[in-house]
Structure formats: structure tokens, C-alpha cells
Specification:
The protein is mostly beta strands and about 200 residues long. Helices cover about 10% and strands about 30% of the residues. The chain has one helix and ten strands; from the N terminus they run αββββββββββ. The protein has a five-stranded antiparallel sheet, with no helix packed on it.
């Protein structure tokens, strides 16, 4: 973890004061003073965001090491329900902000565009739409309100649920029956400024 911004700012102020004292040569002794100061303690903190998928019940942690985490919200043994023309199925991801840093350290969770890939050379993806929304729990995913997912702010120690609706067009032909698609949705968690006076 790098040096917090407020510590970097303090270092810059200390350097400026030192430079000012050195340039006022001959006057330093008139303003000389001494005070004892106990050394402080600097500890590192974790940026920890846990993800839990439903209905798969798989859990993983997001990473900041440059390699994205992967979470399956469905599996071969726990698939989504079968789709019929004009109907939808639902899945969810719950993101929890488990940072142990002092201060606010809220995070903002955003969802990118879904990428649909046909399996076995089919054409099912053409007739599917994927929508998203935020909710208080996975149980609320089957309701209306899929008007688009705006970035969600999650306080430290709290969580939010991202709901995903996969809908099959009412004009889907019988030829797509039995076909399958793979759907990938990128999620991004960004740490927000935790300094009350703001971050540069």
C-alpha cells in the first residue's frame, strides 16, 4: 500500500517549511524552539471486496494485483431455469466492502456491458438481452425495475446486490431451442476518497 495522500501532503509541507528556514539565514536562531514528539505508527490496510454469486453460491475475492477475479453465478449442476420466448431468468452478485482501513474508504461498484457468446455455433445470443439493477438482496432480483445499473456506493462493512436479468425475445424461433450461451459481465470496484477534506 502506498503512502496515504494526507501523509504525502504533510511531507510536502514539512519540506517547504524547512526550505523557508534555510533561506532566512541569520534569523533562524531568533525563532528557534524545540519540542519532543512521540513517533507515530503506520500500518497497512487491506482493500478487500468479496463477491458472492447466486444461484451458484460461489464466493471469491476481487483482486488489485492486476489479474481479474472470476465468479460463476451459475454452474452445470446449478443452471438458470429454462427460458421460453418472452420470459426472463435472474442471477445476482453480492459485493461486500471488507476493507479494514481507518476512515470511510467507501467503494463504488460498476458493471460493464455483458458479452454473450454462443455455444456450439448456435444463434441464441441474438435473441437475448441482459439488463442489470441494484437491490437490497437477491430475493428482489425477480421484480421489475431493470432500467439500467448506475454506479453503486458501498460503505465499509456494508454490501450491495447487483441483479442481472436475461430475457429471451418473444419472437425467438424454435430453432434456438436447446441452445446455450456463455454470458460474461465485467464488474469494477473503485476505492473512493476517505479523507474528509477531499483528495487531489
Amino acid at each position: 500500500m502506498g503512502i496515504p495522500r494526507h501523509l504525502r501532503a504533510a511531507a510536502l509541507v514539512a519540506a517547504a517549511v524547512l526550505l523557508g528556514l534555510l533561506t532566512v539565514q541569520g534569523s533562524y536562531a531568533l525563532w528557534s524552539a524545540a519540542a519532543a514528539a512521540a513517533p507515530g505508527t503506520v500500518t497497512s490496510a487491506s482493500f478487500d471486496v468479496n463477491l458472492a454469486g447466486a444461484p451458484s453460491n460461489q464466493v471469491t475475492s476481487m483482486t488489485v494485483a492486476g489479474t481479474p477475479a472470476s465468479l460463476a453465478v451459475t454452474t452445470q449442476s446449478i443452471p438458470l431455469a429454462a427460458l421460453m420466448p418472452g420470459t426472463a431468468v435472474y442471477a445476482s452478485v453480492t459485493a461486500t466492502n471488507n476493507s479494514d482501513a481507518g476512515g470511510q474508504f467507501n467503494i463504488r461498484v460498476t458493471s460493464g456491458a455483458a458479452v454473450l457468446t454462443n455455444a456450439g455455433g448456435g444463434s441464441l445470443a441474438t435473441y437475448l438481452t441482459v439488463s442489470a439493477k441494484s437491490a437490497t438482496s437477491a430475493a428482489a432480483c425477480g421484480t421489475t425495475g431493470y432500467t439500467g445499473l448506475t454506479p453503486v456506493t458501498v460503505p465499509k462493512g456494508a454490501s450491495t446486490t447487483l441483479c442481472f436479468e436475461v430475457r429471451l425475445a418473444s419472437n425467438a424461433p424454435a430453432a434456438v431451442k436447446g441452445q446455450a450461451v456463455s454470458i460474461s459481465i465485467p464488474l469494477t470496484a473503485t476505492q473512493l476518497c476517505g479523507v474528509p477534506s477531499g483528495c487531489a
